[in-house]
TrEMBL record:
The lineage of its organism: Bacteria, Bacillati, Actinomycetota, Actinomycetes, Mycobacteriales. InterPro entries: 2-isopropylmalate_synth_dimer, LeuA_allosteric_dom_sf. GO terms for molecular function: 2-isopropylmalate synthase activity. Keywords: Transferase. The keyword DNA-binding does not apply. This is 2-isopropylmalate synthase. It comes from Lolliginicoccus lacisalsi.
Length: 159
């Protein structure tokens, strides 16, 4: 199930926990992630939920709308350093990227996607599942689509 929420209102921290994202940007984390990240520093939170290293890296992507609600998505994904240039057709770029990851042996399912505006950028928090394990991924980018795609990669690397 894919869920997307775009929220902008800050909310207070729960039960004395400090929300590292709210401290830094003035906007709270999604509820499910807030409890997990409760008393982390910003640096620790960023390292855990937006890993810079992992099995997967999105080098390049291009989106082509072809009508009838379909999108052709081209991407170069590095898997353990080896580049794979791939193409997929989907109703959106997140579906296309998860399909490409599946083709590379990483079958993840998206359970939740939340976006928060942070200045002129967008933060995306994405909850994914693989083999009955769940993990959040996070990305901040100028473009909301890029932010979403990089959050998918972050979650895939955590799983």
């Amino acid at each position: 199930m894919n869920l997307m929420h775009r929220e902008s209102a800050p909310s207070s921290s729960h039960a004395g926990q400090i929300d590292p994202f709210e401290q830094r940007f003035g906007v709270s984390l999604p509820v499910g992630l807030r409890g997990e990240a409760g008393s982390m520093s910003w640096d620790m939170f960023d390292q855990i939920y937006s890993p810079r290293n992992g099995h997967f890296r999105l080098d390049h992507f291009r989106i082509h709308q072809i009508g009838s609600g379909k999108t052709v998505f081209e991407a170069t994904i590095r898997q353990d350093g080896e580049p794979h240039t791939m193409t997929a057709m989907s109703s959106g770029p997140i579906g296309a990227l998860t399909g490409m990851l599946y083709d590379l042996g990483c079958n993840i399912e998206i359970h939740g996607l939340h976006q928060r505006p942070v200045g002129d950028r967008t933060a995306t928090f994405l909850l994914a599942e693989r083999d009955e394990r769940q993990a959040w991924g996070m990305s901040i980018a100028a473009d909301p689509v890029e932010s979403s795609l990089r959050a998918v990669i972050a979650a895939a690397n955590r799983l």
